[in-house]
């Protein structure tokens, strides 16, 4: 059985866990407060879930989700992530994260910052533009005319294929935006952000989007 490592037990992390378990994955969840703080969540999720340290969750995961505040990514250990496919669910919220000049000036994207911190992993933008509560409930069978599409972006083609396959299993089409440098097209304040779209609608919304300065 495939295991998903989840770093962060907030709304995104817990709801990806729910969706994954519903589709017969196992999950190992970690947060900054330690495994003992996750006992209630793990009990709710059932036998397919367990709590661990960050190192344990990364080691166990064939895919690893990072769903922690952007300001905290610098605290992630680098070595355990080597060669891992890492799904980045981050968005930039200055009121939470503080001002980050590289993002304020559009010199980088949130996912590029994570890739810079984890240089030997394969970062793929995923799960950043869907409301957390929708993740376990909006999946639909392949071929459904109203199937929801989620964007991905990454510098490694094989890593994107693996994430797209995971999304497909959860019931979502995937739209490949290109490299991590293009991931801004679906971040906060863009037309597709937290908007429910089919694949064709998502393609249209991301085809001619203007990049604005972060406020």
3D architecture notes:
The longest helix is centred in the last third of the chain and has 14 residues, at 157-170. The chain has an eight-stranded mixed beta sheet with strand order 3-2-1-4-5-6-7-8, with helices on both faces. The protein has eight helices and eight strands; from the N terminus they run βαβαβαββαααββαβα. With 215 residues, the protein is an alpha/beta fold. The model has no long low-confidence stretch (mean pLDDT 96).
CATH class designation: Alpha Beta
Structural class: alpha/beta
Q: Which overall shape is indicated by the principal axes computed on the Cα atoms?
A: globular
* Strand element count: 8
Strand content: 15-25%
H/E element string?
Answer: EHEHEHEEHHHEEHEH
CATH homologous superfamily annotation? NAD(P)-binding Rossmann-like Domain
Number of helices: 8
Number of domains: 1
Helix and strand topology:
Layout: E1 3-7, H1 11-22, E2 26-30, H2 39-45, E3 49-51, H3 54-60, E4 63-66, E5 85-88, H4 94-97, H5 101-104, H6 110-117, E6 122-125, E7 149-154, H7 157-170, E8 173-176, H8 199-207
Parallel strand pairs: 1-2, 1-4, 2-3, 4-5, 5-6, 7-8
Antiparallel strand pairs: 6-7
